[in-house]
Amino acid sequence: MFADYSMSELGAIFAMQGFAGLILFSVFVLMALGLAIIFGQMGVINMAHGEFMILGAYVTYLTSNLFGDYMPALFGTYFFVAMFLAFLASGALGLFVEWALIRHLYKRPLDTLLATWGLSLILQQIYRSVFGAREVGVTIPDWMMGSLPLTDLIEVPINGIFVMVLAVSISIAVYVMMFRSTWGKQVRAINQNRVMAGAVGINTEWTDRLTFGIGCGVAGVAGSAFTMIGSTGPTAGQLYIVDTFLVVVFGGAGSLLGTIASAFSISQAQSIMEFFLSGSMAKVLTLLVVVGILMIRPQGLFSLKLRK
Amino acid sequence: MSDQNSESENNHLSRRAVLAGGTALTASLFLPKNLRAADFPTAEVNTTGLAVTDDTVTIGILHSVTGTMAISETGSVQAEKLAIEQINAQGGILGRKIEYIQEDGASDWPTFAEKARKLLVNDKVASVMGCWTSASRKAVLPVFEQHNGFLYYPTFYEGLEESPNVIYTGQEATQQIIAGLDWVNQTKGAKSFYLLGSDYIWPRTSNKIARKHIENFMEGCEVVGEEYYPLGHTQFNSVINKIRLRKPDVIYAIVVGGSNVAFYKQLIAAGIDPAAEKPIVLTISVTEDEIRGIGGENIAGSYACMKYFQSLENENNLAFVKAFKEMWGDDIVIGDVTQAAYLGPWLWKAAVEKAGSFDVDKVREASPGIELTTAPEGYVKVHENHHLWSKTRVGRALADGQYEVVFETAELVEPDPFPEGYQ
């Protein structure tokens, strides 16, 4: 397969392929972080995660239209505003959903699966009614499109770099919130022992709501970023949900580090196999390996020691 | 969900259609004379108990208006309603107004079969305009064959099918593929092709035909890669790197749905600008509808090969686009399948009038040889094999989301659903 190519060409291709793997890794991290917070820290299986992402994408679409119409001079910067608004919108919807739906189901974790699945269908139909069944085209500022030629042969996509930077910043932000803030301490306390945490005066109800909201907000930011690489339509969220759960479950629920490690291993495996095999086969093999490992290690790659 | 359109809505729509009806007027010039219901007693034109009265005939519309496929099928529903409205404005079929019952297939194949059965058995509709994906067509096929219904199917598809109960108004694979490959070879000098597709029957069958044609019928040409990705796949960086490595002259892409958007965005982000034509991007799966989601600026310069583009400059099409926009709004775009869906009611009308009857058996018998001079795509004719003779065109995508037609076959291309030497 490689006989006809010179060393420099091969080197360039492998460099770019390595980069493609890193982009996929960043995409997985962005998708999974919000779900990892919710699933890992609260035990809520949020099937509507994809729809919270798409809300962020639609907010980005609206913001781009707004800037295009009223502030064309600032169009190049709208994306940052859009991501912030996406966080607020998805986060606010998350707070509302927790208040209206999720908090009544904490004692019935399997029912949250059904309820959030229903929620995802409702949200899809709302998007369809409001924005139309067709996908909307989000105009991306020019500076974010195209590629950066590093050498004659190696070109890296600018939006890929953007997604990587974003994934790293959000991971750091989540880490700081989780392990350096009072809220994070409370979340972890509740995760370890809910009753005890309540007894020492932690407002578990409010902490839960905030956790859910932040998880959804992070999903919104991810959705906003994905307008650069994917489609924005009522059902586009469904494209991400399987991979998202795969990453979180494989990493071990409850462990953010596990999520990142799992995103890394799945993305690298997939990207390397995609290069040597066909796309569909790569997916099949990735899933097989993941299933195999989960059979041996049902708790996932990393797991927290919990007092049960 | 079903809605039977009321009489008052009908009248209201008719008036609008008359105002809108450039196409209707053009079409009426070709009619022998205004047919009156009294000349065609119901007992004679309907011997099999279909939903035909002295002044109405009921047909079914069966598409997904909810679920994943709603994105694509909405345009077909709109086109069919426009055609029905225009036919009614001209006085209907055999003097009878067309009424329709619309059912929602909900992007779910068993639902399609169930709704088809409902339309045929309970509602006794005289014909059905419907389906979009091959999967939905395969699901309803046994129902139509069992209950002797008559389906007009609008989508370009993989071929390998010829049902007595279906008229295929879109192109089958060889019609769409061969002319485009020859064109890119002859005018652009392309020799090597990278075939790419979503992983299901249509892209796979189409690429199989493309590969056979490239390897057996195009001198000195070769396929340097063939690859499929699961439906809904959103990460194409690996395949883009492989394409870079293989350096094909043409990327032949049959990617569908949300994957489409991801593919073109990532292609341009990776520095492969279709407008530079290095390599040339040739697709058979992106109509004007899909471009709306992809963004014209991301796909400008790619070539698409199909039978219809909204920008076609002929009288029929100008009138059709005008009427369509008046009915459904100015910012709407019309893709290949939408136009093919628009042909359905007109072809059925022509067949019924030729047969002088609504009976499915007689309409079937009358169908081959039916000609339509008023089709927006130009002259079409129904083949013995229930597909349409039609021209194939190549369009170059523009940044405003339209295609500029750069090539069209001189003659109509014969439909060949079971192509010899291609299987």
UniProtKB/TrEMBL annotation, chain A:
One of its GO terms (molecular function) is transmembrane transporter activity. One of its GO terms (biological process) is amino acid transport. It is found in: Cell membrane. Keywords: Amino-acid transport, Cell membrane, Membrane, Transmembrane, Transmembrane helix, Transport. GO terms for cellular component: plasma membrane. CDD domains: TM_PBP1_LivH_like. InterPro entries: ABC_transp_permease, ABC_UrtB_bac, BCAA_transport_permease. The chain crosses the membrane at residues 12-40, 52-71, 77-97, 109-127, 158-178, 210-229, 241-263, 275-296. It is a multi-pass membrane protein. The keyword Membrane applies. Pfam families: BPD_transp_2. Belongs to the binding-protein-dependent transport system permease family. LivHM subfamily. This is Urea ABC transporter permease.
From TrEMBL, chain B:
It comes from the Bacteria. Pfam families: Peripla_BP_5 (PF13433). CDD domains: PBP1_FmdD-like. InterPro entries: ABC_urea-bd_UrtA, Peripla_BP_I, TAT_signal. This is ABC transporter substrate-binding protein. It comes from Marivita geojedonensis. The lineage of its organism: Bacteria, Pseudomonadati, Pseudomonadota, Alphaproteobacteria, Rhodobacterales.
